[in-house]
Amino acid sequence: MSPELIDRFAAIVGPANALRDPADQERYLVEWRGLWHGETPVVLRPGSTAEVARILELAHETGTRIVPQGGNTGLVGGQVPAGDEVLVSLGRMKRIRSVDPAGDTIIVDAGATLSEVQQAAEDVDRLFPLSLASEGSCQIGGNLATNAGGTAVLAYGTMRDLVLGLEVVLADGRIWNGLRTLRKDNTGYDLRHLFVGSEGTLGIVTGAALKLFPKPRSRVTAMAATPSPADALRLFSVLRGTAGGTLTTFEILPRIGLDFVLRHAAGTRDPFGAPHDWYLLIEVSSGVEEATARDALEADLAGAFEEGLLLDAVVARSGNQASAFWRLREMLSEVQSHEGGSIKHDVSVPVAKVPEFLARAGEAVIELLPEARLVPFGHLGDGNIHFNVSQPPGMDKARFLSMWDEMNERVHGVAAALGGSISAEHGIGQLKRRLLPRVKDPVEYELMLAIKRTLDPQGLLNPGKVLELKE
């Protein structure tokens, strides 16, 4: 890119917000797992929707490729530029534009972090329910671009279910103002859903109108040990019947995952006196008093124990104890890096098929690599399992990671055979772009390509991500 063109882009955001020095750019270019290290001639940090529009207008005029970025917490390389692309970071756009507790809505800039939006809801005695381990740094725009899920999907749905309206800058610099907060608007195509989950390939989200919810009067958290995933599934059915919509979390994790956390996360401790093969993190968020909610959950767990669905259970008696339980789950992704290489799978299957998926995927991996350490965990209640495989002790890391594609093929094959998806909440990005045409219905994939060609005919927005476009 010519210095003159870089100067034109820099003039839009001001010299202080046009980063050209590689040292200043570094934190925007490295994906936290280290799978991608990008390059860019300049990182632009716009401070308003108008500046984003001017950037894309200039890009459209000059044929410049653009990579939008939120908090740089993505796990599939969707936010990393390849070299000649201008990186547009939304981190300066952090306004909470308005909060309406009566209508249970909030309008925010795309660069607001998830935790900032949660706090703005808390300030008016409301709840924004999306919850992720990266909530202190991930941004709303990125959450929308990847249709983030997290730990509360069971009760509140994914990001797609939490958005009422969007403000989006299109590839030619036009601004679509769709920041409506209506719960009902039956006036034709609902364009917001084109952009949710599109990973910045159709437009750059700059603002969002989101749903808020009444704050629960109580939250009761429990850790439980279960004999098997099949028993966990039966317990899930029981709790869905008794707790209904107040059951907000139902997570599963294996003993090896808990061992990793206890070994590498300071201040953690085993909730039980003896080891078990499988653990559950359960939370009920209720409109009744905490004591009443706790009594109800304890009664349900006691009944499950009598039926052989549980081996042990501990219900948190304080906020600190509940936080300690949550930390065991939230640290699972981070601590795996201390055990060597990790081959990741973010898949979903119908909830009733989770036990079968775990068994068949495990068999497929062990057949390929008998010494592999299986670390499957995640959201049993919505069918999303992070089927991770850790490097065998003593095995060369590079040799292990060279098996990524072959192992993916086996695990994804099991998920597909059970009617599942190869990406439940992390997106496609670069990591799974070449897999997408093989798992999508051909007509569906053609429709996706047609939408891309219509909204971004020059292919300037986040090139090399999601879709395989013919040059």
UniProtKB/TrEMBL annotation:
InterPro entries: FAD-bd_oxidored_4_C, FAD-bd_PCMH, FAD-bd_PCMH-like_sf, FAD-bd_PCMH_sub1, FAD-bd_PCMH_sub2, FAD-linked_Oxase-like_C, FAD-oxidored/transferase_4, Oxid_FAD_bind_N
Keyword GTP-binding: no
An annotated Gene Ontology molecular function: catalytic activity
Lineage top rank: taxon: Bacteria
Entries under SUPFAM superfamilies matching the protein: FAD-binding/transporter-associated domain-like, FAD-linked oxidases, C-terminal domain
PROSITE patterns xref list: FAD_PCMH
Pfam families: FAD-oxidase_C, FAD_binding_4
Keyword Calcium annotated: no
Cofactor field: FAD
GO BP: any one term: respiratory electron transport chain
Keyword list, A-Z: FAD, Flavoprotein
Coiled coil segments of this chain: none
Residues of the FAD-binding PCMH-type domain: 36-215
Transmembrane segments: none
Entry similarity comment: Belongs to the FAD-binding oxidoreductase/transferase type 4 family.
PANTHER family: BLL6224 PROTEIN, D-2-HYDROXYGLUTARATE DEHYDROGENASE, MITOCHONDRIAL
The protein's name: D-2-hydroxyglutarate dehydrogenase
